[in-house]
Amino acid sequence: MNKRGVDGSAGDADYGAIGGGYAEHRRPDERIAARINEALGLSRTVVNVGAGAGSYEATDLAVTAVEPSAAMRAQRPARLPAAVDAVAEDLPFADDTFDAAMATFSVHQWSDCAAGLREMRRVARGPVVVLTCDPDLVREFWLYEYAPAVLDTEARRYPSIETIARTLGGQVSVRPVPIPADCTDGFNEAYFARPERLLDPRARQACSAWSFVDAERRERYAEALRRDLESGAWDRRHGALRQQPSLLGSLVLIRAIPS
Description:
There is one protein chain. Helix 5 runs parallel beside helix 7. The protein is of the alpha/beta class and 259 residues long. The strands form two sheets. It has a six-stranded mixed sheet with strand order 2-1-3-4-8-5, sandwiched between helices. A two-stranded antiparallel sheet has the order 6-7.
């Protein structure tokens, strides 16, 4: 049985405590959304597993959202249908119910990632599409100089690309996703050219890995970044990123088609 928190959160993060700002800071980026929609192909019915506040749900598709956290379900905009209260590891749908299944920034939250992926494969006739981060690349981001425990946490939580591909089976493609410099979805790498944004505690809170670090250390990390921005040290090392239109970081899109 999956253990669930007070608000229903079923993974390792307490979204009742940290999820309040997700609708504001984790707004879907239309360029990333276009890649997800392309990967869904001709699918008309889609289950979105670990749907959160509804990011990346295309309104021209029949999307069934699954989200265990009450705090996250409450942030879904009125234009989207209410989410089903369930967990990835035990989807309440018959085999082959949907044309496709999708999960965005979600698989690392599940208590049993392999079980959740198998459930996505079970309920989807066609593609399973997963937007996630490659743990082998997470620490290559400049933030590791300032907040190593945060990115160590991210790298530890994300399942390997090989594990996801092997579990889903079939024909699997893995494509890097360029992160725009003005990305509206505020995960850590989205601020590669706007480091000042990570001085905002609300922006940091919207990246769940920060919640695994104690408050004193979070402030120490932010203060180190603030000092380097004020002194110009960050710009001397990384300032060229401010002129870079996009970043190929750890973000990847995995698409699995049944054999």
